[in-house]
């Protein structure tokens, strides 16, 4: 079977597994361009469909499709939707298809089904003699770019005249039969146009009234680091959200709709976050956001979502900018804040470990994340009548592990340091701990949850169990190996949907945050909007996800959990719970 025959066989119901591995080539005289578009739309593929013009490469046609959607098109000097419509009218030319080729930008927003319906109507009108000068000009241009069979020569016209006269005589002889046939054809054309109109009306009724929501799915976006020193945080959050979405989808979805996550890499850099958020909202048309990672990136993302009035749910950050009083309407947090984590740490160090407040230092990332953590320390120090300005604070630049200056400053401190509260990412934190412990193994190190606990443990163990042992991390979720109801469910889902992934604090947080959002979606009903979902979330009270603490929201409370758990590493890199009181 040749490739052209394959297109015809799979045009209406293509095999997804077959479509993913086969690129096609052929001639438009055998396979129409509309068939090609329909084939790659139904199989939801990413591809570039090219028709080579005999007039030269400057007249070639290229249509870009991404996940079955038409993104961009070029027909000679023409671009966008007009180029697609012209391309679908071609009847001759060699074509080839390159898989996984994407457009540089999106210029077309119409669905393939709508474009195909428009072309069907256009064909019907042409067959019934409806046309205009513009269509004639179009036909003329296509004739130049893709020449068709030339018209008969003057010497052959007399033959055509004879044939035409004979046809008239034959028509007179069988006029009744021809009249009956023409009536049947006209009725068929009318019925077809009525069917097209009905289908168009059905499509219009099914067209989503809410961005990112169709009859069958709800699409959420996520901007997070999937590259760079903080990539494990993005990967962990996505894993957890995917688990919750997959389990819900297998059970039938939310009110008849499946959940889908579109996650893009911002590298933990605010400038990249800006463009990623814009792409997710405008090009990918997501309903809202879940699981974004980081404070400096949130400083860009939150104003964007507030301006667009889009949901910003369960970000992996405890920064105060997401916890305003009164809260921003579209921002909802799952986790305890950095201020609550660092306050619990200072209280533990002073009350349980008996360390004087003036012997506590801070190691923090030099940006909004570090500032948010330090503010929690400062607030607690004031309660102990300690001026935060007198506290030693050292740090490092985001997305680096350049901690040498921080280590030198700590070593040169004239005041003794017995504990360091850390507001850092896992690579920088591990490097700092390793260098300081080489000379001061007695110092207590405590990290906030954003560090990425398992990633920190793995990083520390590369330096040996001596370095890892005794390092504390405050958590906003229970131990991922515990026997809490929600954690057991999470443990069951990991091998089913994320084979090879280990239970981890970050992915557990993503799973719990997504579970809370799903509960809100269920209560919002099928015909929800962003506004009605926000109202439903604000009505969530005393939700028990199965972690040993109830959660909920309110009009003046957009943080579900205030619980902080204490953990400490042993020499084997395993986390154990500690009583923070």
What does the model show?
This protein has 581 residues and is of the alpha/beta class. 46% of the residues lie in helices and 15% in strands. The protein is built from 20 helices and 18 strands. The chain has helices at residues 3-10, 16-21, 33-42, 81-88, 112-127, 133-145, 154-173, 175-206, 231-250, 270-283, 295-308, 338-351, 368-383, 404-412, 426-437, 453-461, 465-468, 485-497, 505-524, 530-538, and strands at residues 25-27, 47-52, 61-66, 69-75, 78-79, 94-99, 217-224, 258-265, 288-290, 312-313, 331-332, 360-365, 393-396, 419-423, 444-447, 472-475, 565-569, 575-578. The strands form three sheets. A seven-stranded mixed sheet has the order 13-12-14-15-16-17-18, with helices on both faces. A six-stranded antiparallel sheet has the order 1-6-2-3-4-5. Strands 8-7-9-10-11 form a five-stranded parallel sheet, sandwiched between helices. A hairpin with a 2-residue loop joins strand 3 (61-66) and strand 4 (69-75). Helix 19 (505-524) packs across helix 20 (530-538). The chain is elongated, with a radius of gyration of 32 Å. Residues 1-22 and 130-178 have low confidence and may be disordered.
Radius of gyration: 32 Å
Q: What form results from the Cα inertia axes?
A: elongated
Classify the helix fraction into a percent range: 40-55%
Q: Tell me the fraction of residues in β-strands, as a range.
A: 5-15%
Overall number of strands: 18
By secondary-structure content and strand pairing, the structural class works out as alpha/beta
Question: In short, what is this structure?
Answer:
This protein has 20 helices and 18 strands. The N terminus is likely disordered.
């Amino acid at each position: 079977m040749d490739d052209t025959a394959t297109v015809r066989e799979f045009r209406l119901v293509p095999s997804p597994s077959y479509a993913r591995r086969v690129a096609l080539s052929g001639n438009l005289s055998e396979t129409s361009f509309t068939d090609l578009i329909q084939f790659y739309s139904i199989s939801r593929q990413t591809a570039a469909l090219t028709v080579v013009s005999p007039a030269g490469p400057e007249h070639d046609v290229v249509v870009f499709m991404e996940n079955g959607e038409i993104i961009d098109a070029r027909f000679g000097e023409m671009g966008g939707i007009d180029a697609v419509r012209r391309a679908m009218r071609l009847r001759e030319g060699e074509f080839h298809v390159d898989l996984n080729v994407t457009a540089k930008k999106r210029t077309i927003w119409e669905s393939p089904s709508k474009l195909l319906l428009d072309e069907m109507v256009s064909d019907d009108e042409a067959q019934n003699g409806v046309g205009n000068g513009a269509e004639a000009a179009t036909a003329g241009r296509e004739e130049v770019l893709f020449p068709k069979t030339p018209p008969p020569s003057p010497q052959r016209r007399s033959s055509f005249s004879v044939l035409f006269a004979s046809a008239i005589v034959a028509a007179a002889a069988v006029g009744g039969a021809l009249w009956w046939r023409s009536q049947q054809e006209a009725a068929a054309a009318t019925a077809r146009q009525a069917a097209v109109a009905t289908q168009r009306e059905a499509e219009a009724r099914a067209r989503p009234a809410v961005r990112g929501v169709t009859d069958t799915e709800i699409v959420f976006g996520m901007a997070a680091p999937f590259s760079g020193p903080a990539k494990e945080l993005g990967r962990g959050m996505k894993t957890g959200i995917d688990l919750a979405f997959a389990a819900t989808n297998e059970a039938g979805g939310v009110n008849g709709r499946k959940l889908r996550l579109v996650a893009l890499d911002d590298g933990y850099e605010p400038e990249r976050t800006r463009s990623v958020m814009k792409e997710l909202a405008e090009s990918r048309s997501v309903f809202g956001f879940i699981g974004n990672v980081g404070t400096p990136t949130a400083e860009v993302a939150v104003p964007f979502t507030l301006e667009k009035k889009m949901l910003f749910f369960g970000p992996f950050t405890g920064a105060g900018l997401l916890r305003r009083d009164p809260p921003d309407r579209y921002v909802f947090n799952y986790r305890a804040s950095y201020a609550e984590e660092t306050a619990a740490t200072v209280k533990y160090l002073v009350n349980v470990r008996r360390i004087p407040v003036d012997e506590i230092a801070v190691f923090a990332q030099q940006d909004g994340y570090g500032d948010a953590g330090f503010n929690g320390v400062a607030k607690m120090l004031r309660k102990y009548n300690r001026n935060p300005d007198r506290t030693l604070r050292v740090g490092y630049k985001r997305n680096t592990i350049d901690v040498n200056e921080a280590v030198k400053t700590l070593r040169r401190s004239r005041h003794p340091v017995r504990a360091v509260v850390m507001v850092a990412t896992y690579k920088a934190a591990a490097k700092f701990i390793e260098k300081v412990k080489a000379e001061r193994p007695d110092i207590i190190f405590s990290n906030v949850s954003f560090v990425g606990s398992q990633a920190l443990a793995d990083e520390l163990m590369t330096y040996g169990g001596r370095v890892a042992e005794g390092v504390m991390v405050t958590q906003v979720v229970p131990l991922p190996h515990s026997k809490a109801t929600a954690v057991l469910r999470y443990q069951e889902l990991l091998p089913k949907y994320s084979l090879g992934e280990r239970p981890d604090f970050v992915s557990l947080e993503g799973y719990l945050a997504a579970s809370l959002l799903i509960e809100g979606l269920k209560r919002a009903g099928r015909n929800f909007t962003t506004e009605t979902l926000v109202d439903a979330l604000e009505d969530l009270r005393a939700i028990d996800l199965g972690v040993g603490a109830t959660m909920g929201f309110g009009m003046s409370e957009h943080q579900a959990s205030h619980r902080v758990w204490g953990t400490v590493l042993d020499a084997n890199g395993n986390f154990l719970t500690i009583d923070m009181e």
